[in-house]
Each structure stands twice: as C-alpha cells, then as structure tokens.
Amino acid sequence: MTPSVENNDEVQRIKDAAQIVDVVGECVSLKRAGTNMKGLCPFHGEKTPSFMVNPERQTFHCFGCGEGGDVLSFVMKYYNLTFPEALNELANRYHITLPERKFTAADQHKAEKRQRLFEVNERAASMYHEFLMHHAEAEQARHYLAGRDISPEMIVTFKLGYAPPGWDYLYNKVSKSSIPLSDAEAAGLLVKKDKGGYYDRFRDRVLFPIFELTGRVVGFGGRILGEGEPKYLNTPETLVFDKSRMLFGLYQHRDTIRQTRQAVIVEGNFDLLSLAAHGMENVVAPLGTALTQIQVRMLKGYADEIILLFDGDAAGVKAAMRSVPMFLAEQAEARVALLPAVHDPDSYIRAHGKEGLQKYLAEALPLLEFAFENLQQKHGLSMTGKGKILEELRPFIEASASSPLQQSVLISQFSEKLGLDPEQVLKGFRTAAQPRRDHRPISSRAVPLDKKTDKTVVQLNRKQAQLIEFLIFYPQFLERFLEAGIEEIMGEGCGGNILAGLQKAIDSNQAGGPEQLMETLESGPERSYVSELLISSPFLKQDEEDEITEKMAEEMLVWLVRYRFKKEIEQLSRDIREAQQAQDNDLLEELVIRKAELNRYIGSMDGGDDQ
Q1: Do the Cβ atoms of 264 and 286 come closer than 8 Å?
Q2: What pLDDT is attached to residue 444?
Q3: Are residues 116 and 92 part of one domain?
Q4: Concatenated DSSP letters for 526-572?
C-alpha cells in the first residue's frame, strides 16, 4: 500500500536514513557481487544465491521468485507488517519523528487493531513477569525455575512470567486498566464465557512471551505447574500471532546465530532455556508444534547450517523425518543429532556440560544420511524393504524439485545405497507422480528455479522494452513521450500498467524516478520487472551529462513519431482502397495528398528504428 501524497517527504526521510544493506543484512547473509550485494532469498528456497541488493539505488530483487522493492517493502514482506507498521518500525529504529499520517481506511484500521494487540500483550507480559519476580504466590514457580537452573538473569532476558491459579487474575487487572476487555479477548488472553463475562486463558502456568523479530510480544506459551491438561498451552492464532511463523528464542539469539552461522533447534521451551543457561545462545524452538517450512526459511537467513537436536525416542525420530522435505524444499543445510534414550537436551547438558554437548553436535549426521539410516533400520534392504524405502522417499524427491541438481544428487545417493540404477529410480518416481500431480494442492508444488513465476512475466517486444525502460529511469521525458503517442505503443498490458504507474508517480512526486514508481505499483509482474531493472540495468548514472540522455530521448521520440505516422499511412492506404471502390474522387484526392505529405515528412526525419 502506498502513502498519500502529503506523506512523501516523511517516507523519503525514512528511506534515506534506513540503509537497505543494513536492514536486509540482519536477515540475509550478503556478499559483494560487483556493484550489488548477493545472498540467499528469504522468500523462497534456493541453494544458489539469486537475491540481489543494490546499495546505490536502495532496492532489492530476487531473480528466482521475482520479489523486489525498496527497504519498506522488504520490511513489510519479511516481518509481515502493514505499511504504517513498517513505516513506524523504521522510524523508531532510526529515531525519526513522524507527524500524523493519512493512510487508507482499511490499512489504518488493521494497523490500529494490531497495535492494540501488541500493547495488550506487552502489558500482560509485564504483569505476569512482575508477578513471577515479586509476588509471594509465585514462590512455587520461582522454585521450579531455580530447580531447572533458570537464573533470575535468564528470567529477565526472556521476560518469563507466571499466571497464578484461579480464573480471574488477568481479568481483574484488565478490568481496572484502560485495556478494553474485547482487546484482551482478541489477543487470546481472556476467554469469553457462554453466559457472559470472561475468564483467564492461562492459569497456574509459567509463561514464555513470544517475541517477533522487531521485539514486540505477539503471544505466549505456558507450561502448567500443577496437575492438568494440556501440559503446554499457546496463545490461539490472532491478528498478530501465527505459531507457524514464530520461533521461541530467535529474537534473543539471532545475533549469536548470525555470528556463528549455526542454529540448533530443540523441541521444547525449557530445553532451550536450559541450553541457554549453560551458555549456548544459538538455540531456537518451535512452539509446541512440528517444524514448518516458514520457520526453516527464517532460520536459513541467519545460519548456514541448522542442527536438529531431538530426543532419541520414536517421537523424536518422527519429528526429524517429517522435517526432511522442508529442508530440501528450502535447500537448507541441516544435520540431525538424536540424543540417547535416557536423555533430553536439558538432562544431557546437565550431565555433560556445554563442551560435551558441542562435541555431540559435531558428530550429528547429515540430513539425508540420517534419513536413509532410519529407513534402512525400519524396512531393511530386502526387495520389499527397498520398495518401501522408495515409497517413503517420494516426499523428499518432490520437495527437491525446485533444484534439479539437488534432486539429481539425492536420487544418485539413495540409488547407490539401494543398489539400483538412478535413471530407473527417477523414471519410477516420474511415472508414479504423473497421475497424482494435478491433485496436489497448489501450495505443495515446487517451482523450478530456472523457470520464472507468473510474478516476473512481462510480455514486451524489444521496442516497447526500450521505451518503457528509458522512461523508468528518466521520467522527466514522460510528457513528451505521451504527446508522441507512446500509449498506443504500450497498449493495455503490463507496459500500459507501468506507464500508468509512471504518470501516478510523477503526479504524486515532482521528481518521479524508479524508486517512486515502485511505490505506485502493486505486487505483481510489473513491480518485479521494475525491481529487476533497478538491480541489473546498465542505464546511465544520474551524474552523467544531460545531453546524452537528451540525445537518447530525441532518438526515441523520432521513432515514436515515425511509428505513429506509419500507422496512419497504413490506415490511409486502406481508406484509399475503399474510396477507389466507392468512386469518391474528392475523398480519394484528399487521402492521397495526406499520404504523400506523411511520406515526405517521414523521409525528412533522421534516425529511427522501424522494428
């Protein structure tokens, strides 16, 4: 969503202050590639970097999936924020005071509602944290945490809290505050009774606030202290909380993960806290559910290698196997360390210390090696067993479809271990997949990286591309190009949409320019086309002489006029034939004179490419 005209100065101030390399670099490992910076795209799975950031133009573009834009659109996409939220986030980060701003009613309403939920969660986290730290009724919870080696410093770092027994602790607090009860319900903190009124969702539980990457509390996880079910309870899905997109500990540990380029995933919150208490600060945990592909993608931006540290029981093996396709789809490096049956991460680090656990992690098996060993133990290597192994390999093969090289290596590796011909194995998978391919949900189909998605497809002929690309970088010539008839050349497709975007950008900002154009274009093929140009275009830099661009413009304007006149001549030829058939001599003479004038005018013009 774009800002209103009167907000452009404030938006530009933020863009000027927020260096895109710094902002993107917090989430993606960037390396110098000529004038650009290159890294693995955080928006789709890839092994070879195709995500480019241009520091000079302050833009990004992925040549794999087509995502592109400026620093604001990156923050919106990566952190799942609305435009007002992204603007505020960057303004706060760079200490810029914004005046009152106008946004669309829908955008403003959503941002205000989300902001209220953030505030409710933050205040609830503070209430629960204060209760844990100072209230006599929280003595049992403090004793429990001390017994698990969770120090007061750790409690503060993670802002742990305690929800006391009973049904109305938070309800009473909220009732006496300025927080509307309906907002506390919308945040998942209160539950509405069937007969009216509310009760607390979290009771007699140690609470783990869940922070999003900008540092705001979006929800809670709670571990019950006494008897009762469920043992662990999370905030339900809300406007700001989606547990499939969150990782406990990532906000606190992302700097260490980025520095070490390694992340360790454990299954439980207390496993994470125990490891952190012993000095391991590159650990994260999903929120009581199976690992998701989005979580893998998030981690991949910080770490070159991810290690799964799971219990060695059947549930741990199942969880590790279930994650294999996600790592393959994201083309992320991963290893698996299953603990001995008598241990979980907490008990292992207590018994062996940080150094002992690090040695154990160093021996973790590569993901595919772990998967094959598990399948071999499960099914054996008889002909029947090999058939079952191949059947269970199918999700791995499908998940690796986005990288033909990775898929080829995977098939070759497993075929060798099974004593089978790789070509036959691949043929078998393709044959088996054919009848079901169209029945898979769209979201499960991988897109090969060497094929552009619909987002990036802009159909322009050579001359259309030359004209529109010139105007993208030199919008000061737009009015003259419009007078020369460029709209007729562009038509109503993507070229026409970009042209309309240029007009809108100039109307809202006297300078126009490609960066302003990006703001006017919605996500889609046109926006992706422009963002790719900003990364890869060889056009002249702004500090080069004006007469060079003036000459380029003149040549294109000559071509436009020639094109328009030639189109008119073609129509005149058709009209002349009709006049001859109708024996309308007066009209015929008029048409012939006009056609001759146009031919003389075209003949007198210099340059121009007729193609």
Answers
A1: no
A2: 35
A3: no
A4: HHHHHHHHHHH--PPPTTS-HHHHHHHHHHHHHHHHHHHHHHHHHHH
State which H helix or E strand residue 518 sits in: helix 514-520
Spatial distance between the Cα atoms of 403 and 414, rounded to a whole number of angstroms: 17
Listed residue (78, 501, 92) closest to 294, CA to CA: 78
Does 462 share its domain with 578?
A: yes
Tell me: do 131 and 218 sit in the same domain.
Answer: yes
**Residue 565 belongs to domain with CATH number:** 1.10.860
pLDDT in tens, 405-454: 788 888 888 888 888 888 877 777 766 555 444 443 323 333 333 334 44
561 part of a folded domain: yes
Same domain, 95 and 144: no
Task: Please list the helix, strand and coil fractions of the chain in percent, rounded to the nearest 5, in that order.
Answer: 60, 10, 30
State the Cα–Cα distance between residues 54 and 19, nearest whole angstrom.
10
460-493 burial, b if ≥16 CB within 10 A, otherwise e?
Answer: beebbebbbbbbbbbbebbeebeebbbeebbeee
- The pLDDT tens digits of the residues spanning 147-179 come to 988 999 999 999 999 999 999 999 999 999 999
Structure tokens at 168: 């109305």
Query: What DSSP string describes 319-377?
Result: HHHHHHHHHHHHT--EEEEEPPTT--HHHHHHHHHHHHHHHHHHTPEEHHHHHHHHHHH
- What one-character DSSP code corresponds to residue 238? -
The pLDDT tens digits for 526-562 are: 888 888 877 766 544 444 556 667 777 888 888 887 7
Asked if the bond preceding 230 is cis, omega within 30° of 0, the reply is yes
pLDDT (tens digit, 9 = 90+) per residue, 28-75? 888 888 888 999 998 888 878 889 998 888 889 988 888 888 999 999
Q: Give residue 12's pLDDT band: very low, low, confident or very high (50, 70, 90).
A: confident
In a domain, 356, yes or no: no
Neighbours of 296 (CB within 10 A): 23
